[in-house]
Design brief:
The complex is a heterodimer of chains A (806) and B (293).
Chain A (H helix, E strand, L loop, with lengths): L14 H5 L14 E7 L5 E7 L9 E5 L34 E2 L5 E7 L2 H9 L2 E6 L6 H6 L12 E8 L3 H6 L3 E9 L11 E7 L4 E6 L4 H11 L7 E4 L16 H13 L3 E4 L2 H7 L6 E9 L5 E11 L9 H9 L9 E8 L14 H19 L3 H8 L8 E6 L5 E4 L4 H11 L5 H10 L3 E13 L5 E7 L5 E5 L8 H13 L6 E5 L16 H28 L6 E4 L2 E4 L6 E3 H7 L35 E7 L5 E13 L6 E11 L6 H21 L29 E5 L22 H13 L5 E2 L3 H9 L7 H9 L4
Parallel strand pairs in A: 1-12, 8-29, 10-11, 14-15, 20-21, 27-28
Antiparallel strand pairs in A: 1-5, 2-4, 2-6, 3-5, 7-15, 8-13, 9-10, 9-12, 13-14, 16-17, 18-26, 19-20, 19-25, 22-23, 23-24, 26-27
Helix pairs in contact in A: 8-9, 9-10, 9-17, 13-14, 16-17
Chain B lengths: L6 E3 L4 H11 L3 E4 L5 H6 L7 E4 L9 E4 L2 E5 L4 H5 L2 H6 L2 H6 L5 H6 L2 H7 L5 H8 L3 E5 L5 E4 H4 E3 L2 E2 L6 E8 L5 E8 L9 E9 L5 E9 L7 E3 L1 H4 L9 H11 L10 H29 L1
Helix pairs in contact in B: 7-8, 11-12
Classes of the chains: A alpha+beta (806), B alpha+beta (293).
Amino acid sequence: MTTKLFGEPVRRREDARLIVGRGRYLDDIGHTALAAAFVRSPHAHARITGIDVDGALDVEGLVAIYTYEDLTGPMAEPLPVLIPHPQLTEPRTGYPLAREVVRHVGEPVVMVVATDRYVAEDAAERIVVTYDELPVVVGVDAAYEARAAVHDDVPDNVAARHHQETGDVEPALAASPRTLSFTQYIERSASMPMEGRGVHARWDADDRSLRVYSSTQASTSVRAAIAAKLDLSLDTVEVIAPDVGGGFGVKIVHPWPEELLVPMAAIALGQEVKWAEDRREHFISSAHERQQRQDVTVGFDDEGRVTALDVHVLHDNGAYTPYGIIVPIITATQLVGPYVIPVYRVRVDSVYTNTVIVTPYRGAGRPQACYAMERTMDRIADELGLDRAVVRERNLIQPDQFPYDHHLTFQDGRPVIYDSGDYPGLLDKLRTLADWSSADVLRDEAAARGKLLGIGMAMYVEGTGPGPYEGGHVQVLGSGKVLVSTGLTSQGQGHETAFAQIVASELGVPIEDVEVTTGDTRRFAYAVGTFASRAAVMSGNAIALAARGVREKALRIAADVLEADPGDLEIDEGLVQVRGTPGASIPLRTVAVLSNPLRYAFDEAAKQATQFTTHDDSKPPVAEGDAPGLEHRDYYSPIRSTFASGAHAAVVEIDPETWEIDVVRYAVVHDCGNVVNPMIVEGQVHGGVAQGVAGALYERMAYDADGQLQNASYMDFLMPYASEVPDVDIDHQQTPSPLNPLGIKGAGEAGVIPGTAAIASAIEDAVGRRITSMPISPTELYDLMRSEDSETTATAARRAGTGVMA
Amino acid sequence: MKPAPFRYADPGTLDEALAVLSAEGAGAKVLAGGQSLLPLLSMRLAAPATLVDINGVPGLDAVEVTGDGVTVGALVRHNALLHDDAAARVQPLLARATANVAHPAIRNRGTTVGSIAHADPSGEMTSVLALTDGSVTVATPSGPSTVEWRDLFVGPLETSISGPAVVTSAFFPALPPRSGTAFAEIARRKGDYAVCGAGVVVTLDEDQRVAAVRASYVSVGLTPEVHDLTDAVIGSPVEKADWTAAGELARTLVDPDGDIHASADYRRLLVGVLTGRTLAEAAAEAAAAVTRE
């Protein structure tokens, strides 16, 4: 029997190629292409009064200059609102090139095309754009105050008022034995893939067809958008995501202005055109996430059980809303986490600011949600003098309560019904893994070394694998090679390996025979994209179904040849055989040859399938309802999302002289249902934790009041190095999803979600002062410790009272 | 992020380099390790008309160690200085400071003299040049001259050197007898520019009493400064010296700026803490030196 590769820690097949430099990223394509560069707004909010290109015209190598005036047809209209929502009452999007008004630093105003990027930048530098500056709105509080408006026709700056409630929260709060209210903030960070965005377009004038390479997370939808915006028939456009050097969400947004303008120029000029984003462009013109103000009121009883929860979120959506209100909806609906919340009301005001747009970044609203809920749990524990783990335990949904309906509507328009989970199991494992009960011992030991030690935890539930669908295609060639394709894209997650494992296991072939292609509309034209921890759930299941279809057909053909019942056959190591009858077998590759009745023997193997070799003349060569070839295409479309879960704990040590914060221990218990490849899942968790630590302690978008990003480089935007990321202890729990054939849940984003909440809790535990704004840096912690306004926690006061050092 | 057009010259001798610099005038810039200059070019924050690459000039890559001090040639990479044991014996601050310069990849290309000529107040080696009372040698068409550190640093990224000139070496005087040193930094991430760095020299008398205390800081102030902290601890027996008091004194002497990574107050706090910590370490080393005598 073939080793079942599903569930095994198979080493990633793509790594050798990528590590030795054989990857083919966007900028590796089209060395002779013309290059595009952009003149971008230096102002956060301004009216364009003039564009003078004269100075650029004598730059040797300049090919073309485009402004808004050069855009025609659909290109002259605003960019699409990708995900409309009834509560997004004031959606606004920009134009491919700014029309009259710019609303954030970095908005594209002019596109320059030249013989190479150097020349394009030389010409761009000589173009003079004049502006009348307008009042600038930065930050959610300023947006809500609305002394100035980002969009003239949205004077209150509110793009959407999102509102969900599961009962009458005000009476429930009034009837609660205890209540507490607090306000907290969380700052912006961003995806920051190593490879920025990029587009390469080639127009074949004779064939009248367009090939576009884009560093995207959604090639099929980029294709549709390009066709629509450039007035092309869909069949004449192909879009390919080559190797993509990371996405983390930012590349799900589409069409980016550049994704439309570069193909437009390629068609107009009849030459290949390429744009590869540089890092500064990425900072000021792609997308960010995470800034929110959260006002929380919670009702609870003396045991710490939540009776009602009322949350108001001010969500910063940046200057435009091309991705709708997906991020705040996720915050609103994932906030309840693994807990029973008898009455819940959430109101989100999503507001415009003169900053880069806000769209999903790994976690996509969930780190904020987890921060709100978990810090609420911490507050309850502090108020009642209870162990933070105990308060959580008392509120958890129990294993016998699944499926658990929160009576909320999720980001996919479908109900938030948790499919399966064991949250008490997670908490128990975490307490053991993190040695939760020894915290006081660790604290004393650190105090003896002059350090302040604290521990914190956070739990989460993550809706993963939303629809509407993905598809898979599996084909066995006469060579024995198995081709697998799916339309969603890969950004380094290990899809080549995980999908190959699924096919090898389902079909009974060596994994070496399996070749996986993703994100290429020539191979698979129907897809949604890679986001929301959905690739394994959606394409994994679709590919499994496709492989099962191939297996069924292979067994049917082989049964004919072997004169056996298909039910008696098995496929192992690429050989179809009668179970228990050695020698009664046929290679799968031969079955593939026979599946395609031939007239012409183009190679040696093909002879077996030609018309004078096959002898059964009692039926047509291709049976009615059948098709030539050993291949199958199938789709997976779930009724609703599947819900993964986890629990993290962080131990921090703080130097009370310098206020440096060191995460000395980080524990993760993770449940994503059945695991295709535990090594890949652990890698995803590690990367997620790195971004969680980043968001808690290092990264932020430092906008000044004028809307200028002060740290738009890797020198000042502090993405942590390996030296800043703690070692991670991982324990797994597997609660299969009943919703899909493979029983899996998504794992891509999980690692990042609880970082901010858990680390805030640990710092608060260490210093005994309330932490209400994240991320936090040593200089800010120093200010907090000196401030007369900072609140001492009840826990710290109790510890001081009992003589235990805080 | 592509540099504006520039001409490139790679002279084979110092005279050729000076000739190119003379001919090109103010638009010419010397390229050594390029670790600061090239990013500035790519971001178009600098757009020199000509880069004069001195990497092909012979004789600039030596570390010369004598009893008086260490002379570091213009093409000596940070990493070479970091691992030069002879230099470290004569002036231990060299290895201690270069260990804090960025990351190995940058230390492998970046030059110590180049970073001094760049005059970045967040550079380690500008601070060490000041603390050791060092100087640089500058080649000009009219012959070489020596510029003391005090006369060298004019402002952030600005030196007193003008006209056609190549800084050919930096001289770091030897550590005085009965002295010890220490160097420490606090950075947000390992290898980043320091939020605050401190280098110190403690000198004792023959009875192990504190005779002199000098400190210089990184990322504090616009140009390197040396602060004499002797008054806080003068005459104190080394084992009883109140290094915290010296740190407190240092806090009153510095005038740091705030930025997005640290407030001025926080930098001042770190000046105090790092001063206290490094002085204790340096004093122990000085005491050991006295004992050896």
